[in-house]
Design brief:
Chain A has 86 residues and is mostly helical. Chain A is 78% helix and 0% strand. Chain A is elongated, with a radius of gyration of 15 Å. The longest helix of chain B is centred in the last third of the chain and has 29 residues. Classes of the chains: A mainly alpha (86), B mainly alpha (257). The interface between A and B is large, with 38 and 55 residues.
Chain lengths: 86, 257
């Protein structure tokens, strides 16, 4: 599970940086959340702690980047709707 | 509304919500240490909360404003889809999604949720307080026009009306949430049996119910004379008070037996 977390964390980081440029960083954030969960579970096993921590950190960075670059406004009901309404 | 960082446009809201989440995480870490709880379990709970919270916030947004959304336009191009996906969330939807997340965490990971909810309540209040500062900068969730001395005036906002004195409802809510966070942390450190999540719901539902009267943004779900958030506030408040009364009665019955 530690290796899965690390692989997913690196993938999420690459997606966040690459797809974030075209406004699709949220895909990386989804992978990042899964990497964080897997990493936190794997950290309970002392043998996998190193790789799991790596995956956890990559997941947190990609999630943070996804949030900062993607989320425009919470509870702002008019913004997107206004832009996309008839 | 935002700024450029290394050539990338950073929305104010995203920036402040990230600061809020980082501060909430640090506060959670500090409280975990103080109350001798497992930090890895806390991270799992937080990850589930984020995933379910954002999903719930988006779904409630779609539910209350589906009449204003042109779904053909949303799916017509990648740009429109990204715009739709990344903006427009409702906090209460996130809160309801969060409760669902706690249910799944307990079922799947067998984590003792009750211990972590106590830590999550002040952390959530802190993240939310920063989020409201983001609202102020972005110009969303703005207040009604006011003739008072304390006001916000936007000059180049694409959301809020420009050149009008508006009641600073976002700043008031942010301040009340910072106060709530401090109160909850103080109570929790004083007595680790404090049910901070119950206090959080009671406090926030009252504050939100009152502040909704001072909101000026019109494109929100309105039912009769109340907004969607006010109806959810009433439901949450009544649910929590009913839960407390039922628990009291149950304890009384056990004592009598």
């Amino acid at each position: 599970m530690g290796v899965a977390s690390l692989v997913l964390g690196i993938i999420s980081l690459l997606i966040s940086i690459g797809a974030g440029a075209v406004g699709m960083g949220w895909i990386g954030s989804i992978c990042g959340i899964i990497a964080i969960v897997l990493g936190a579970i794997a950290r309970k096993n002392p043998e996998q702690k190193g790789t799991a921590t790596g995956g956890l950190v990559c997941g947190i960075i990609s999630l943070s980047w996804g949030i900062i670059a993607t989320i425009a406004c919470v509870a702002c009901l008019g913004a997107a709707a206004g832009a996309l309404s008839l | 509304m935002g700024f450029k960082l290394f050539g990338t446009f950073i929305p104010y809201y995203g920036f402040f919500i990230l600061i809020g989440i980082v501060c909430a995480g640090l506060l959670g870490y500090f409280l975990c240490k103080q109350l001798s709880l497992n930090i890895d379990d806390f991270i799992i709970v937080c990850a589930y909360l984020l995933a379910f919270g954002f999903t719930g916030a988006k779904l409630l947004y779609i539910a209350v404003s589906y009449q204003n959304i042109d779904f053909h336009s949303v799916f017509s191009s990648l740009e429109n889809f990204n715009l739709f996906f990344s903006s427009g969330f409702v906090f209460y939807g996130g809160l309801i999604g969060g409760f669902l997340a706690l249910f799944f965490v307990k079922k799947i990971h067998k984590i003792q949720i009750n211990e972590y909810i106590k830590i999550l309540a002040p952390s959530l209040a802190l993240a939310h307080a920063f989020g409201r500062i983001g609202c102020s900068f972005a110009g969303c969730c703005y207040g009604k026009e006011t003739g008072g001395n304390i006001f916000f005036e936007y000059n180049d906002s694409i959301i809020a009306p420009n050149g009008i004195h508006l009641f600073p409802v976002q700043a008031v809510e942010s301040l009340s949430l910072f106060c709530l966070c401090i109160i909850l942390v103080f109570l929790l450190l004083k007595n680790n049996k404090t049910t901070t999540h119950i206090l959080y719901i009671i406090y926030y539902s009252i504050v939100r119910f009152i502040l909704e009267f001072f909101r000026g943004d019109v494109e929100r779900g309105i039912f009769k004379c109340f907004s969607t958030s006010q109806i959810i506030s009433i439901m949450l408040f009544v649910s929590v008070i009913s839960y407390i009364i039922m628990k009291k009665i149950k304890n009384q019955l056990i004592v009598n037996q």
